[in-house]
Amino acid sequence: MTKLTLPQERRQPCEIWTRVMGYHRPVHAFNRGKQAEYRERQPFTEPKPTAHA
């Protein structure tokens, strides 16, 4: 597999949006408390339901 690289001058920042208090907002616009809360979040995957016999 080849490694893709992009020159620094062609790179651009990635803006991350998430839902807080019912509204979608960019993470950089959060206050300090919400930014800290966002960094502490733990992603999870809900287990698939099992079939009952």
From TrEMBL:
Bias-annotated ranges (Basic and acidic residues): 34-43
Single GO molecular function: ribonucleoside-triphosphate reductase (thioredoxin) activity
Pfam families according to UniProt: NRDD (PF13597)
Region (Disordered): 32-53
Single GO biological process annotation from the record: DNA replication
Coiled coil: none
Protein name: Oxidoreductase
